Amino acid sequence: MLHEVINWLVGTIGSMGYIGIFLLMAMESSVIPIPSEIIMPPAGYLVHEGKMNMALVILSGTSGSLFGAYVNYFAAHYLGRPFLLKYGHYVLISEETFLRVERYFAEHGEISTFIGRLLPVIRHLISIPAGLAGMNHAKFATYTLLGAFIWVSILTVIGYFIGHNQELIAEYSHQLVLGLLVFSAVLVAVYVKVKPKL
Q1: Would you state the pLDDT for residue 63?
Q2: CA angle 85-88-90, nearest 5°?
Q3: pTM
Q4: 52, 75, 117, 121: which sits with the fewest CB atoms below 10 Å from its CB?
Q5: Is there a contact between 156 and 146 (Cβ–Cβ < 8 Å)?
Q6: Which residue has the higher pLDDT, 181 or 54?
Q7: Distance CA 142, CA 125 (A)
Q8: Which of 8-12, 22-26, 56-60, 158-162 has the lowest mean pLDDT?
Q9: Which DSSP category does 119 fall into?
């Protein structure tokens, strides 16, 4: 099954080019969570084959991630926020909860957005609380782009060097996630220690 999916993605990306990468990563980052682990490595494989350009692949994947993240951001901000403010008390979400979310993202939105883009599952969801809180657009875009750029770049490089070996791609993707979890934990620890002094 995985072999067929990857073959389909290689064909799709090959036929649609950079637009295909953009669209697939936009879906991955928004309401259709297609795993980026099966999007960017095949694109990296096509770079290895000389059929695509590394810089443009990474640019397409990163910008697609930002677009998808903004779909969630705007949906949460313009649809979810008014709805939950009006009806949230029926499901035990009070206005005070929103104020806490807003305060949290005002103080810690940058680190939360950046780390969120590096972690499985959270990567698809971090834009929602950011949108609910109305996080500053410049900060949201900057840290979303930074986190997405790192994630997309590493996956593309994995695909470039490993090629079409699905088993190795899965293995290295798993190791990548573990490495990013450790990196995120260290970064949070440093942030907690340094933040009060800033």
Answers
A1: 96
A2: 145
A3: 0.79
A4: 121
A5: no
A6: 54
A7: 17
A8: 8-12
A9: S
Residue-averaged pLDDT of the chain: 80
HEC string of 35-100 equals CHHHCHHHHHHHHHCCCCCHHHHHHHHHHHHHHHHHHHHHHHHHHHHHHHHHHHHHHCCCHHHHHH
Amino acid letter, 128: I
User: Which CA distances in Å does 102 have to 107, 132, 135, 141, 152?
Assistant: 9, 8, 8, 17, 29
105-144 in b/e form (b: 16+ CB < 10 A) is: beeebbbbbbbbbbbeeebbebbbbbbbbbbeeebbbebb
Instruction: Tell me how far apart the alpha carbons of residues 85 and 14 are, in angstroms, rounded to a whole number.
Output: 45
**What is the rounded distance in angstroms from the CA atom of residue 75 to the CA atom of residue 127?**
10
Q: Which residue has the higher pLDDT, 124 or 98?
A: 124
Which two structure tokens, joined as six digits, stand for 153? 């770049």
